[in-house]
Design a protein that fits this description.
By secondary structure, this protein is mainly α. It contains 17 helices and no strands. Helix 3 (about 50-75) runs parallel beside helix 5, helix 7 (about 135-145) runs antiparallel to helix 13 and helix 12 runs parallel beside helix 16. It is globular.
Amino acid sequence: MDKTTQKVGTYRYRILGLLMFATTINYFDRSIIGVLAPTLEKMFGWTNADYANIMISFKIAYALGLLYMGGLIDRLGTKKGYTLSIAIWSVFGMLHALVRPGFSVVGFAAARFGLGFGEAGNFPAAIKTTAEWFPKKDRAFATGVFNAATSVGAIAAPFVVGWIVHEDGTNWQIPFLITGVLSAVWVVLWFKMYKKPEVHPKVSKEELAYITSDSVIENEDKLPWKSVLGKRETWAFGLAKVTDAVWWFYLFWGAKFLADTFQVDIKNIALPFFVIYILADGGSIFGGYLSGALMRKGWSINKARKITLLICSLIILPVSFVAFTESKWVAIILIGMAAAGHQAWSANIFTLVSDVFPKKATASVVGIGGMIGAVAGIIADFALGSVLDSAGNNGYFWAFLIAGFGYVIILGFVHLLMPKMTPLDENLNKILE
């Protein structure tokens, strides 16, 4: 830690640590079923379409929840809104353990629906918190750090599941119960530590000045949720979030792909997932660092973010060849590199919102964009489940082809919608430079 950092203060990093903790719980909870999928399919006799329908239930709720939770968090504030979100997803996460074979598809679909609705609040709340606690030049890095926790949760899931659950499925309920304990710990810490920086007794004047160094003071008037719908910038972010469908493909179908193609079972999935998601972690942090570093060299926000997104797109392209390889580890490395590129992409597109929109509209815009990503995931799940049931493993060819080429195409449209990334003021009017 250098003298400048010591003088400014570092309480904002404690808040960032809580964002990481919450996001780890979030992704551990949602990843469990993906790891268990091959085992649960055998236990309950699910088809690919059955599994797809369970995933679709989660994403429908996630899409609806993002629309509702984003606006609710902007109205309630980060402290109350985030707590409500984690409480809902924790209860429904634990309810998975009550599902019985006689109603397994309906039961899991219902539990996933509630889980999806609650988990929808995580990213709107986390991005809003980042906008409150970090200056623009640091937000992509801060977002990259807490976004890396998605991979921490995804890495933890196969290790915990492999340790607790037997190959015949015995003890499958236990992993779903663990998150309830973790969530209770988080809520206690959140209520003890969180206040807005301008009223927080542990934030020094120097640190507050640094946090607000490139922000403008906003009034307290609430913006109607519908007010952001007419902005091209909202739809540019929403289009960029279509790539969530690819991330969810890795998360929810990755274990199935490795099991179907390379016979990787529940006891051997931990190492492949570790490799994939540790690469994703590195991508998230590096992607957030890169655009900030370019800005420190004098690049404009527009140029720094978009060049970083282009680099991400090019890193992802080779995943298109996964379906052609006969090597398990070549496939794992290609997926891992694509996951790294996605997480770097994700860290930067989230930051686009706080680059352009006022803080009080951030959660609403993130919610709308996330909803669009969830709808894209629903369409992808429906299509992939149907194709795999009818054409077998050949269906993965199309999934990886789209996963590879989608980003660079989407980036072109994002640039057309938002060519200059001109910031909007507290009334959503463009700020003239």
